[in-house]
Amino acid sequence: MNILVINAGSSSLKYQLFQMKDESVLAKGKIERIGMETAILTHEPAGKAEVREVSEILEHTTAIRKVLALLVHPEHGVLASTAEIDAVGHRVVHGGESFKNSVLVTDEVKQEIKRLFDLAPLHNPAHMLGIIAVEANMPDVPQAVVFDTAFHQTMPAPAYLYPIPMVLYRKHKVRRYGFHGTSHKYVSERAAAFLGRPLEQLKLVTCHIGNGASCAAIWGGQSVDTSMGMTPLEGLMMGTRSGDLDPAIVPYAMGKEDLTLGEISSMLNKHSGLQAISGGSSDMREIVEAMEAGDKNAALAFDMYEYRLRKYIGAYAAAMNGIDAIVFTAGVGENSELLRKAVCEHLTFLGVEFDEEANRQGRGLERRITTSSSRVQVLVIPTNEELVIAEDTYRLVQAAVD
Ligand code: AMP
């Protein structure tokens, strides 16, 4: 069975085509700047040369048509015909309280995703465009949706409610939802396999540290808390997002700087975090380079980022009354030796015995960066959200056939 995984954004569309027999990737790529005359398409077919095209792609239906044409292209393609695509799986950011698991797309599911537009105004409408574009091009192919929030639906009320008047939750569903659930689920399962222990017996803190960043407390395979909240702004300090701050800062800063709601929201989402403190870059590679060259602002940004991450790990150790392992994943978590070292060296009180040599080796591989006698193990596990989407889609389509 071949499954096409789609991650549609408002002006972009990423795709990966999986052959499920061995879970290999037959082709992957992305289209950026949808809606413009100069949209950029990058297509990477396995074992063939990469293709890059600049052309006018004004909407998602055209984008999908372009992708399908490339997948069956005589020179750049990997399939004889689009009939070889058995199903399509979509990433959907917000499933609200309605979706606790991945589901096949039906009219009711589409209605519900639309109802949730308010909770994720930047993301859910774009995902819906992707679903409709696939329907327009391949009306008979089953589609599934996999939600970033679904894995965190197991959180108990004390973790997901905010201490504000309950009317906001009852009437408007204001609560913690959490994000990156597909990644937290994947790396927690891989961690259990790596440790050779049943997931049901483990207390894990998973740290998805990329451009966006979140931690999750995973107890017995279930998310019991996570740092992102009703939106992906809460929690850790990120590339351009502030993470946690005193809510009273919002009206105060608006008054003092004469900012509108849109401006303060843009400031906290797009101009805060590493970028604001370093005074330049939001990219951890550049922060580390600048820090090593003696830039004091970059060093402060790094220290704040690490400090805030470490506080969450400590909080989740308390939330679960202990932990067995900490997992690092995503762009920064998988690649920044320095950040992992700084965090681990401050967690000796938990029983973390850092292995400096192991931390430097094995890039791209699942590995342990603590000594074998360390009471709490620290693992680096490359995430693979697309594979989870393909697997869930495969399972749902198989179940529908059986
Ligand atoms: P993601 O959102 O998971 O794709 O992560 C993207 C982020 O990973 C980038 O913004 C970089 O800050 C970070 N990153 C990638 N490679 C490295 C590296 N070698 N060292 C430090 N950070 C890295």
From TrEMBL:
Main location, first listed in the record: cytoplasm
One GO BP: acetate metabolic process
Transition state stabilizer (site feature) positions: H180, R241
Biological pathway: Metabolic intermediate biosynthesis; acetyl-CoA biosynthesis; acetyl-CoA from acetate: step 1/2
Compartments reported by the entry: Cytoplasm
Manner of cofactor binding, per the entry note: Mg(2+). Can also accept Mn(2+).
Protein name: Acetate kinase
Catalytic activities: acetate + ATP = acetyl phosphate + ADP
Keywords associated with the record: ATP-binding, Cytoplasm, Kinase, Magnesium, Metal-binding, Nucleotide-binding, Transferase
Enzyme class: transferase
Species whose genome carries this gene: Paenibacillus ferrarius
Catalytic residues as annotated in Swiss-Prot or TrEMBL: D148
Family: Belongs to the acetokinase family.
Name of the gene encoding the protein in the UniProt record: ackA
Residues that, per the record, bind substrate: R91
Protein EC: 2.7.2.1
Membrane-spanning parts: none
InterPro entries: Ac/propionate_kinase (IPR004372), Aliphatic_acid_kin_short-chain (IPR000890), Aliphatic_acid_kinase_CS (IPR023865), ATPase_NBD (IPR043129)
Stated role: Catalyzes the formation of acetyl phosphate from acetate and ATP. Can also catalyze the reverse reaction.
Any one Gene Ontology cellular component term annotated for this protein: cytoplasm
Cofactor: Mg(2+); Mn(2+)
List of residues binding ATP: K14, H208, I209, G210, N211, G212, D283, M284, R285, G331, V332, G333, E334, N335
Positions with a binding annotation for Mg(2+): N7, E385
Oligomeric and partner information: Homodimer.
GO molecular-function terms, A-Z: acetate kinase activity; ATP binding; magnesium ion binding
